[in-house]
Amino acid sequence: MQLKFPDIIDASMLSTYKSCARKFYLTHLEHLKAKEPNVHLHAGKSFASGIEAARRAYYEGKYTVPFFASDSKNVVGYEFITKAPGDSESAVAEGLKVLMREYGDFSCPPESAKSLERMAGALEFYYTSYPLEHDSAFPIEMPGGKRGIEFSFALPLPLKNPDTGDPILYCGRMDAITAFASGHFVTDEKTVASLGPSWARQWDLRSQFSGYCWATREHGIRCDGVLVRGISILKTKYDTQQAVSYRPDWQINRWYSNMLVVVQRLIDEYIALCRGGVLSETLFEHNLDDACISYSNCGFYDACRSEDATTWLVTNFARKKWNPLLRTETVIEE
Ligand code: SF4
Hints:
Layout: E1 8-9, H1 11-19, H2 21-29, E2 32-34, H3 39-60, E3 62-68, E4 75-82, H4 88-103, H5 116-129, E5 138-139, E6 149-160, E7 167-180, E8 183-192, H6 207-218, E9 225-233, E10 238-246, H7 249-276, H8 290-293, H9 301-305, H10 309-316, E11 317-323, E12 328-331
Parallel strand pairs: 1-7, 8-9
Antiparallel strand pairs: 2-11, 3-4, 5-7, 6-7, 7-8, 9-10, 11-12
Bound molecules: iron/sulfur cluster.
């Protein structure tokens, strides 16, 4: 397979590159993804869809209904209908409906707490903890009249794609931009296993959020920082915490300079690989340290433990291209 430099880059890709360049190479240049679906990703995506649907229903009166082909009783998609906004009970019911639809018939591993039932309970817990009608953080009205719910961006960087010469795009997708505490905050929900005393401290330097604040300001929207809401999901209980993390201009500017340095390093490494044609340990080096065991082991852990990683990868991985803007994976036909 011929390597291609990504047209679009996001915070998660750069975080992977910084933690382990070899993992970036395998994931985003070779496009290797585990054949076994990841329960954390699947459950997290379903939860985010449900939260978004409830917000759209409550603030915009938008509800989904099935869409049928004219010659069939089969559902071919979903379309929005508009009802009166401001009905929190119906809005949460809409959120649950969408969460269940997104979760589908996914088979949750028995040891995981992120079953459909527990995820639906987590959404109800979220809206009990932060009731729509009393939430002090509510989506702002955007230029053009839309609410700040699920805001996507893709902004050109002053760096060129080494394959095409086009500007590389930096993209992201925020859960919401809310008015909160006399300011505007990017708001993000995180589903986690547990919320310890240090949970709230981890966001102050987080590049994902600095990038969101940068993009918000680039769109001419005031942004004071981020409001992160953590929801812990265990088999027996739920819990929640929220953290407020500010982003002054100097911090955004430092993040931006740092991000460009990292992307340029990635470009240089990619060019060196294309010129040399051989992947050695001097290019896209393995971390072989903490990154291998963080988040209950890197997905390539067993491959990196094997002398013959290729055989292991061929057996357990498929080629799927991740689009960070659309958040979709497309199977690459060999
Ligand atoms: S197991 Fe370690 S070295 Fe291998 S790809 Fe993952 S983080 Fe990198």
